[in-house]
Queue: 4 jobs
Job 1
Amino acid sequence: MTKAVITLIGAGNMAASIIGGLLESGHPAANLHAADPAAESLANLRKLGAIAVYSDNAAACAEADVVIVAVKPQVMREALQSIAAPVRARRALVISIAAGTTIASMEAVLGDGAAIVRCMPNTPALLGVGASGLYANSQVDADQHALAGTILGAVGLIEWVPEEALLDAVTALSGSGPAYFFLFMEAMINAGCSMGLSRDCATVMARQTALGAARMALESDVDLAELRRRVTSPGGTTERAVECFEREGLRDLVTHAMTAAQQRAAEMGAESEQERV
């Protein structure tokens, strides 16, 4: 693991997961800094290891090689303004995990020469099994590119996309995706209850079934369609259920829902662009 000095602006759950993943992968605590106005949030981060904590963003970035901005989109501009001077002085790599904040809007604050990576993580990163999409601007050099991948790889799988606009699709698929699975599991549990199962029984069975299916999808050497066929015996119960899903247009519904999420991500990006004008 690199010995780069990494500063996180924001001390929420995602910052905690990144710090935890970096520490677990061997990054020295002395090279991890964090800033947040909330003392309680910083105290929670300190429980993870002997990292340096600050109430002042600029002070936290004074020695940073990488600055990860982990704040809500509505305070992103203010956060970037507070770190612009040390980022330019250090030529630090900036990694943003704020949804809908475009690189152009960040460059407007940090300067055209800023090296910026946009990242779209998802909440399973809190458990070290996240899926993050990344895009780098032209100022990010090869070492910084590799470093960004190493940092986000500490909390799960990463995929680089060739165009920034594709992060909207990543948002619709993996960023919002956990909620889709949770909703489907809720529906399965409710259906099980309507068939006479206790809620506890239906909940345990649905959760374990989701876990088992995910593991099979990840660990199998065949594609999802083949895995589905192997479960679907001709004339059996699964075939009857799958035929119902297909007849009711499940595939189209998923496409429509994800398209709506992608469009909203694009709208948020346009809103961040308007703010810089």
Note: Residues 6-167 form a domain with the Rossmann fold fold (CATH 3.40.50.720).
Job 2
Amino acid sequence: MLNHPDMENEQNEVTLQVADGGSMTAYTSSPVNAAGKLPAIIVLQEAFGVNHHIRQVTDRFAKEGFIAISPELFHRTAPKGFEGDYADFSTVAPHTKALTNEGLESDLKAAYQWLTEQKNVDINKIYAVGYCMGGRVSFLANAILPLKAAVSYYGGGLDAIANKAPDLHGKHLFFWGGLDKHIKSENIHTVIKAVEAAEKDFITVKISYADHGFNCDERASYNEAASKEAWAFTLAFFRD
């Protein structure tokens, strides 16, 4: 695994065809002038779209040597480039409610296929990471795609798809906020119990002093210490 924190990135926008006949825009970020086959990662958005924060996270992974792609998961109901308002969840609610596991499966497979078609991607080192809503989608990705590993940051609704634990391909890392009122202890217990029962490799981390959305520096719940610690842990997890 590469480690080039000062590596220059190349950002692009690509259009992917999905199995249901539609098209999906995705933001990509890749290291420039990196030699050899590189690891790759699917970065999965919060409920607020592939916004500035998610693009910034995608760029951070590229600076660490990953070919990174972040698909716009609301492409069936929202305009290209849609960004919701962190202060008003009603701006995104219609789009989150319209998501289906079947649609997400098509989207994930399209993003994965794009990565496998890049000549400089090591297809044995493809990962996923997701935040908030994307934390649930990252778990789904690990169940659908032959990923090496995946990470879920405060994934709301993960307990609703815990029955997919037996299908996980790679090891999974979960981050939870101890102050998070959106995700209750019983929700977390359901997820971890399912992964344990499926005898899958996992790590679960609850940061006692962090709230929901602690990784996003554009949200009021941002916690700098927790964000830095989780980032370091995430990179170490992928490099294991």
Note: The chain has one domain: 9-239.
Job 3
Amino acid sequence: MLEELKPFILTFIPIFAAVDAFGNIPFFIALTHTLSKKHKQAVIRESVVTATVIAVLFMFLGKLVLRILGIGIEDFQIAGGILLLVISVHLLLAGKRKGSVLTEGSREVGVFPLGTPLITGPAVLTMTLIMLDSFGPLRTFVSLLMNMFIVWLTFRYTDFFVRVIGEAGMKALSKIMYIILAAIAVMMMRKGLTAVFL
């Protein structure tokens, strides 16, 4: 029994590390704490569906598309980093308009930056292809779906953290997370550029 489960475990753990479900909780809180419960649920659905669809499509079509277009993973890192930097700067400097930006664009927040590149980013795309080559499509697909379910669970129960931290703490956390988001964007671009030139 254990031997049969071992390949699934070996596939699940690297994808779990790449998805970083628990590490994305602060970003989810920072991006959605001004939204109503209904809008927040819509963001959760949009983010998980977007992340899952992108990961599954890339798993089956990624190699072919990259080969046809001549695109490398480093290109994803650079492009994703630029987009993430733009939105993090926008959120930091939006001031009084920040709340309305998040409310009116709640579904867009679910797709970007939560769905991609925070949940399904270059690390997940790369790891998916590696696991596909190592353990086959079935184990990779099941492990991917399990990880996305964990993401849904963590996002679904973030209200607990909001109650513990409080409103003032949420505002402070939001600013810190936007700065870290910008730093992650720079890191993604740096890794992509390093891979291209070195």
Note: The chain has a mean pLDDT of 83.
Job 4
Amino acid sequence: MLFIEKYQKAFVNYLNEFTTPKAPNSLYEPIEYILRLGGKRLRPVLTLMTTDIFNESYEKSLDAALAIEVFHNFSLIHDDIMDDAPLRRGQQTVHEKWDLNTGILSGDAMLILAYQLFENYEGHTFKALAKLFSKTAIEVCEGQQYDIDFESRNDVTIPEYLKMIEYKTAVLVGAAMKMGAIVANASVEYQDKIYDFGKNLGIAFQLQDDYLDAFGNPETFGKQVGGDIIENKKTYLFLKALELSETEQRDQLLKFYTNDASNIEDKVSNVKQIFNESGASSETNIIIENYTEKAFNILDSINVSSEKKELLKQFGTSLMNRKV
């Protein structure tokens, strides 16, 4: 998708200018490190694309796109600390490569740097961006706390799980798109609609990520397949399997998630079998399609050219059909 590559290239060039060496090195090197680790650059690309779609130069939203990416990576540094994760995108996490205190402080600095980037906008644009960012940032924190709380709960419901991924993941996708619309000076109605489009696409994206964690190709997925199962995470697949399983199968699934497995490969294989036999895997694919279709229906109500709508639909479809 060549049009995506255009936005990615422009963003990475701008990012490289941002991550020039600064003092003290021990504060800024970890920031440069995490930002250069790559990733999908999904959120900043959506910011630039949205500005373009509403007939403004995407270059005007580079600072907003960078703020989104800096904030996203700030959250990853702190998530990795909370999870005691050794690897991020196949490389050492910041707190492992440096130390815990550096990870905390560099992450804090990234949050402040993200806010600073909005200062490059004037008046009402600055105010609208900062207000949206503050709302989104606190929701992401709330989503992270829900996720932590779920680890010690055995009564998590599907609506609760969907709310958690909405806050932890999807609101940032919606905000990325709304920021592009704000910079383009789109109407408030269309700002809100493109936000809802992005939020629904973000929910579908996370559900697809959950599915790929269990059923993705190890050669293309980019991280350990079955990681959520090994860590006993209560994903949509797990919760749906509990809902759909017969008593014996349900008890087996709960046993796998409450006892330490002596053979990890057997645990992953058996849980995946329950996901398939219960119908949870097919139900997960259905809800992914439902959220994607909901996003596309919202997009149809926005008055932009059909050509530009098609670009967003292609992008959304590619996210849902991805293998990584």
Note: The chain has 16 helices and two strands.
